[in-house]
Amino acid sequence: MMTTRRPVHLNLFKIKLPIGGIMSIIHRATGVFMFVALPYLIYLLGLSLRGEDGFAAAHTAVHGFVGTVFVFLVMWSLAHHLLAGIRYLLIDIDVGVDKEIARQSALAVTVAGPILGLLLTGGVL
To answer: The pTM is what?
Structure first.
């Protein structure tokens, strides 16, 4: 009887994921974040449409430190999710399927997401 040594526990900090795996995890996390953030964004929209006082309250909420970080995370999520979605659509039609090109496109999406998030945050605020 042949036995194999299998790990007793899974240490996630020792696993070396390829950049495509990291980008995929970020893609899922940004999708979840956008879904979770949607009620608060709808609340802010409704608040801003109530009148001058509501708009001022929404403006204050968005322009504080926590609000700016929140806006950045939303913009990063949108940018990353859009870029990764385009990458996945291209892979679906067999563009960028080669290992090296897939790795480069995953790296490009992972790097471009937060950069675009910063640019969009600066444009929104």
So the answer is: 0.87
